[in-house]
Amino acid sequence: MSTIELESTTLHCVCITHKTRWSFVRLTTTDGSHAVGEATLIGQEDALCASAERLVPRLFAMSPFSDPGEFAQANPPENIHDAAIISAINQALWSLDAQAHDRPLAAHLGVQRSDIPVYANINRRTEQRTPGGFAGSAITAMDAGHTAFKVAPFDEVTTDICAEGNGIAAMQNGLARVAAARDAVGPNARLMIDCHWRFDEATSVSLIDAAAKLDIYWVETPLPEIEANIPALARLRQQCNETDMLLAGLETSVRWDSFRPFCEGCAYDVVMPDIKYVGGIFEMQKTASRCAELGLAVSPHNPSGPVCHAASLQLSATLPGFDRLELQFDESPIFDELVGAPFAGIENGQTVAPQAPGLGVTLDNAVIERYADRPARTWKR
């Protein structure tokens, strides 16, 4: 491993749409090298800045680094905001290390696969929240080479509405959106539904019955992910499995210890660690390995910006138990503008990781400045 001595750290926040902000951490070394990681937590940029104010001085205190994973392992996060900053720093440190060896991060870590199956998350690009709007997005994604699709259609459902006994009525509009997406992609495509923790167990039972009739591949995060809900999730998982569906979740979990009770408690078939929150590359690898030992599939959560996408592609080429990577489909052309469009296209539902050294992406300074949500915050040694 090379030695990495840091000169400065910068936090960038950029405005993508009226509902989306992306956040990035850029590291610059004393020899002029630089790399970037992503820390996006939409709507929580102030908390990200506060975490960075506390954590970056620790980063400089530990520099230089001979082990790019050292900072993440020495600084267990206190909350998801810390986890996002620590994970972004870790992405960038590993990218610098791989750059020093002139190879992509996947090759640096050990490639297990070159072709990476992906699925299109069409939710955020679908501004028209009608069945036709979802069908149109699905067709656009299919035309772009996708064979698997995910929607988050239950806008009208909340846990409070479910507790009042009105959840089944509230989910009908969402089911109409799912049915339209199914008709658009045909009977053979993989279609998943994301519930965003909006349901209770009783309403989820009815949802799963309805989803089975639409040939859904997985149901994602129906219940709030608290340990008290593990028995209910295990029951819902069994119900899904009885109709050849899967239950998926844990996209915001931090470090393996927070995944473990759910994984060992049989809550899910598919685990969805996010490189932005899991606590870094070691924690992503550890989580994937432990899930594989338990017979669980790993499908990394990846519905945000291009740096997270690059890191997720690199990691997806290396993980055991890997199923399919989420891809935020066509939310904004800024996705490619920010990093100079280094990504391969989608062919038959698959793509490949960037082949440039490190993560394979760099931020375009002019584009960052054009879309900045606030002034960049830079710390220097």
Automatic annotation (TrEMBL):
Matches recorded under Pfam families: MR_MLE_C, MR_MLE_N
Keywords: Lyase
SUPFAM superfamilies: Enolase C-terminal domain-like, Enolase N-terminal domain-like
Listed GO MF terms: lyase activity
InterPro entries linked to this entry: DgoD-like, Enolase-like_C_sf, Enolase-like_N, Enolase_C-like, Mandelate_racemase_C, Mandelate_racemase_N_dom
Domain Mandelate racemase/muconate lactonizing enzyme C-terminal stretches: 131-243
Entries under Gene3D superfamilies matching the protein: Enolase-like C-terminal domain (3.20.20.120), Enolase-like, N-terminal domain (3.30.390.10)
SMART domains named in the record: MR_MLE
Record's protein name: Mandelate racemase/muconate lactonizing enzyme C-terminal domain-containing protein
Organism (species): OM182 bacterium MED-G24
